Amino acid sequence: MINEPKQPVDLKTALSTFEALWSPRIVTRVNDYDVRIAKVAGEHVWHVHENTDEFFLVLEGELRIALREPGPGGERTVVLPRGSVFVVPRGVEHKPSSAEGASIMMFEPTGTPTVGDRHDPVPGHIDATTGHALGS
Amino acid sequence: MINEPKQPVDLKTALSTFEALWSPRIVTRVNDYDVRIAKVAGEHVWHVHENTDEFFLVLEGELRIALREPGPGGERTVVLPRGSVFVVPRGVEHKPSSAEGASIMMFEPTGTPTVGDRHDPVPGHIDATTGHALGS
Asked: Fewer Cβ in 10 A, N or C end of chain A?
């Protein structure tokens, strides 16, 4: 059953099974949500998820998320060191990046595309996907 | 807005703000889900969430989760070292424990009670709650 991993999953071991950047693997599912892990480096693409928040936890390295929030604030960037979490609210344009590289964990509804519902042109190094099975 | 923590939350710093065991703090929300952290030591109580899976990530220490699964398998215990994840499927009776103590992160629908929908008598050291605000 898809919701029933028989054994715990060690995230470091799971991360060691792939090298692709910006190409999340689905570690497990919680109801109709995915738990995804990804290796990242360089810049993602500006995109927005219209109908869902997106949770980030930094497992290794440092992640930055540029945000274009409504209101007078305009654009800002939050910095997530290892061990910190952040939720990008639905409807907020954002662009993750990591100059030195990072490993991250995400929660989001199953089927959520990595490039959101609207996005800038997707560069070749970004995998437009709803996540891959671990080991695939 | 409840879904909009203005800044990232460092989990170690968040964990340092409370000492209570088995008494989860809500770090942030993702749609209608909570991200909760807890310090644990000793035994929780046998309980079941009839309508939701429950996600665990071990941040520090080691967590064990005893499971009473349907079928001939009967009772078993999964061991989660630091950095590993496990999802208890809905409807499965379970009892977390940690002999040496651990810090954990959980992901579950907002309003999910720590002692589930059915449970053994709740001992005094277990906080029957749907989670507390961080800093409360």
From this structure: N
Q: Of residues B3 and A53, which shows the higher confidence score?
A: A53
- The span from the CA of A111 to the CA of A128, in Å, is 12
B123 interface with A at CB cutoff 8 Å:
no
List A residues 13-42 in contact with B (Cβ-Cβ < 8 A). 27-31, 33, 35
Q: How far apart are CA B124 and CA A11, in angstroms?
A: 34
Q: Counting beta carbons within 10 angstroms of the beta carbon of residue A106, is it exposed (0 to 12), middle (13 to 18) or buried (19 or more)?
A: buried
Q: CA-CA distance, A91 to A89, in Å (whole number)?
A: 6
CA distance B19 to chain A (A): 19
Pairwise CA distance, residues A59 & A124, whole Å? 25
Element (H, E) at A15: helix A11-15
